[in-house]
Amino acid sequence: KVGWYNAVVQPAFHLPYSDDTLAFVVLSTPSMFEKALKPFVNKERLKIIRDPVDQCVSHHLSRLKEKFPDQTVDIMFDYELLPNRKPKFLAQTAAHVAGAAYYYQRKDVKLDPWGKKKIFGVCIHPRYGGWFAIRGLLLFPDIQVPFLEQCAPVDCVSTEEQRIELLEQFNFHWQDTRYRDIIEVKEKYSEEQKAYFATPPAERFKLLGLTQ
């Protein structure tokens, strides 16, 4: 429910819907690259003018919207910004309150070892670890769900030591991707997908055989 999200974020990030409004958080699993992105690039090659992943997600969620012709469906994408350059919604917080993935933050560590350093939090999925992404929100303004019960996300990084290790790796060694394997995962990115996301965005077009 939108109210679950609005209750834990600052007013500047509140979603302009009533508390009981139904919303879905959309995640992409590791197989998205092979099952969605590559077929999309092959089919839409001439129409790709910005980030291919963003365009692919936009394409599929827009098609999903067409499945609900009698409903108003508002879509917010993870890459969209407000005029003040802040994100339209806080994706990791939304995933946490929806029960999709646990958002581990500094406050989840009792004996904080970082002093005055800025420490960013990270979501971990019980099946995919860090090998997934939060892509958007689907909001149904006309559907109110007052009796929907909130499910807590699975706390899969449960020890103090593991949480410190996770935040340490994510904040200071994120490029080696070790934080993604903080737990044993059922599925992870293919080598091709790892190479794609490790490549600077401006050079990714070449990897997909696209001219920018």
Short description, anyone?
This protein is α+β, with helices and mostly antiparallel strands and 212 residues long. 31% of the residues lie in helices and 14% in strands.
Q: Main β-sheet, in a few words?
A: 3 strands, antiparallel
Q: Give the tally of structural domains.
A: 1
The number of helical segments is 7
Name the poorly predicted regions. Answer: none
Strand content: 5-15%
Q: Round the Cα radius of gyration to an integer and report it.
A: 18 Å
Query: Mean of the pLDDT scores?
Result: 94
- Overall strand count: 5
How are the strands ordered across the major sheet? 1-5-2
Would you tell me the structural class of the helices and strands? alpha+beta
Organism: Probosciger aterrimus (Palm cockatoo)
Family: Belongs to the MMACHC family.
Protein name: Cyanocobalamin reductase / alkylcobalamin dealkylase
Cofactor: FAD; FMN
List keywords for this structure.
212 residues; alpha+beta; three-stranded antiparallel sheet; two-stranded antiparallel sheet; 5 strands; globular; MMACHC
